[in-house]
């Protein structure tokens, strides 16, 4: 594949525009169309100088052919739209989560095999310097046997984020806090340490009962299939601003903590016979005005997609890994559905 890779973006919100911008900035990428069901988005898309469509179905009938279709819509639409894209003969770049159930992920993977098209899952935190360094440390077995891993994700998502009439906070379209806010960190955990078992958990709703259909906080315990114990503590009930996203690793030969608001700073490294190198600076967080998200590493995603389609490399986060993240969240949330969410009275 020698010519430019043609992309269409479904969903023209903040993330959709980021995808469009990343495509246009890449010398081997070409943006050919954007789609959004909100007519008001058309004027926002005008600066890109490409056709705008009000439905994915209309785009697939009348629009230009795209080599890749980017799915940047509410979570609950990802599966069906990925299926439409694959059936149309396009590769797919899907924002997290890949879907809201393992069954839907399997449906997408089966269709991708049928159509011989690739599905790329957007898990951009893998590209942050601390994440790449952690992967190297684990691959080289620098820490020896892993004893304990603690992940803390404490963010602010309040009524500035969960606005009436939007998809955020809706069970069917959002899926829950772990899907929308913290799936990146579950992906990093799985990428580093593999699958988990013997999951137990407690779920609380401290200040979101009037804002969402689901919990705002959870305390999760588990064991890794490869050995060692883990905990995931998360909340969106933090007042005003994000507090931290951190991972602490206790191993046979040393301890590491990567913290900061977005797991973007190495706060502690004491490892046998090892001197901590100076890492490149991390990308800033995605800035949405009154709140911030994970690191702005989308340019790495599009470099990977284009290089993979041109046969230069392979997908950084493939569909099977996207499925595993969804499956882990689904298993955690199965505990939520079995018990009661404690709501502050």
From TrEMBL:
Domain GFO/IDH/MocA-like oxidoreductase: 134-256
Span of domain Gfo/Idh/MocA-like oxidoreductase N-terminal: 5-114
Gene3D superfamilies per record: Dihydrodipicolinate Reductase, domain 2, NAD(P)-binding Rossmann-like Domain
Transmembrane intervals: none
GO molecular function: nucleotide binding
Name of the protein this chain belongs to: Gfo/Idh/MocA family oxidoreductase
Protein species of origin: Nibribacter ruber
Lineage: Bacteria, Pseudomonadati, Bacteroidota, Cytophagia, Cytophagales
């Amino acid at each position: 594949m020698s010519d430019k890779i043609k992309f269409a973006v479904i969903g023209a919100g903040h993330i959709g525009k980021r995808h469009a911008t990343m495509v246009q900035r890449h010398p081997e990428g070409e943006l050919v169309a954007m789609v959004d069901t909100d007519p008001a988005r058309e004027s926002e898309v005008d600066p890109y100088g490409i056709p705008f469509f009000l439905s994915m179905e209309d785009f697939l009938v009348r629009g230009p052919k795209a080599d890749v279709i980017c799915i940047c819509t509410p979570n609950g639409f990802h599966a069906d739209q990925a299926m439409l894209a694959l059936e149309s003969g396009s590769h797919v770049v899907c924002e997290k989560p890949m879907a809201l159930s393992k069954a839907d992920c399997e449906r997408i993977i089966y269709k991708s095999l049928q159509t011989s098209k690739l599905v790329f899952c957007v898990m951009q935190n893998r590209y942050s310097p601390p994440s790449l360094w952690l992967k190297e440390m684990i691959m080289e077995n620098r820490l020896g046997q892993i004893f304990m891993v603690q992940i803390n994700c404490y963010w602010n998502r309040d009524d500035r984020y969960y606005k009436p009439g939007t998809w955020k906070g809706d069970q069917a379209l959002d899926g829950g806090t772990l899907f929308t806010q913290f799936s990146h960190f579950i992906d990093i955990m799985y990428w580093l340490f593999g699958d988990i078992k013997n999951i137990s958990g407690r779920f609380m709703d401290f200040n979101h009962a009037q804002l969402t259909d689901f919990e705002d906080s959870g305390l999760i315990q588990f064991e890794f299939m490869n050995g060692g114990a883990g905990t995931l503590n998360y909340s969106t009930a933090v007042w005003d601003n994000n507090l931290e996203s951190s991972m602490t690793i206790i191993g046979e030969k040393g301890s590491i903590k990567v913290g900061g608001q977005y797991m973007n700073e190495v706060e502690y490294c004491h490892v046998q016979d090892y001197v901590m190198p100076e890492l490149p600076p991390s990308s800033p967080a995605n800035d949405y005005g009154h709140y911030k998200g994970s690191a702005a590493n989308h340019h790495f995603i599009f470099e990977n997609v284009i290089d993979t389609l041109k046969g230069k490399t392979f997908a950084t986060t493939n569909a099977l890994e996207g499925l595993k993240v969804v499956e882990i969240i689904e298993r955690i949330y199965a505990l939520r559905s079995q018990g009661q969410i404690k709501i502050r009275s």
